[in-house]
Amino acid sequence: MALIRPFLFGLAGAALVATGALAQDINPAVKARQSHMTLYGHNLGLLGGMARGNIDYDAEAATAAAANLAALAALDQSRYWPEGTDSDTLMETRALPAIWENIPDVIEKSRTLAAATGTLATEAGGGLDALRASLGPVGEACGACHEDYRVPND
Amino acid sequence: MALIRPFLFGLAGAALVATGALAQDINPAVKARQSHMTLYGHNLGLLGGMARGNIDYDAEAATAAAANLAALAALDQSRYWPEGTDSDTLMETRALPAIWENIPDVIEKSRTLAAATGTLATEAGGGLDALRASLGPVGEACGACHEDYRVPND
Q: What was the ipTM of the complex prediction?
């Protein structure tokens, strides 16, 4: 972290400052993966709103959000998960230690998500029914990983 | 926001919970763009560390991080910048009102960044000198936007 922080603040990380002192106490890998999840949520929020009829369907906006999801799912995420960043070790994460005991399964689940977002990216602009049909498997892929590898909500 | 939050928490946003109550008070568009910046920083941190000799150069890791940057820079970011999310209006952002008065220039600068990260993605695996040469323009592109459109550090 000592190696990374000066560069972050010099070049690209000043946005961190704006989020206050608390953010600086979060493990940087945890912060990166939570940021990645936030960007999933940013795009899923629009698509889910359209699917539920709370937001007017817009083919161009749906395509853009779905393409974002596919691009995010395809990012190399290997540096998000250093040893010692599980929920037994750090307060600021819900990532269960089971992740590190089941890496092949985690990778398989991430591939399922990548495939589902790829389909969504090609389908989301084809009308509300196509969006709904292809969004379902994305939600299932999210849920499959959360169910096994995230501290439950309750 | 009322439309988006339920979906976020149901499907993909539970990571937000782990970051505490403060995070929920941040405007969701601001949170999304700050998350995007965090992911730039996550990848730039590795590449900058290699460029400075603080982290051993690794062609595969450099290529992966550079490809991440290029993919991030290519994301559709139009929904990050709703009116009324500037630094005069919201506490949690350093995004100057000048952004909304100079949209064509902001877009032009974002294209410069996208081009620079594209070059970096093809060059970063070609040795430390190639990494250094192609990382410079990325840093300049970051800085050009921050200089004009972000609340200064001091």
A: 0.85
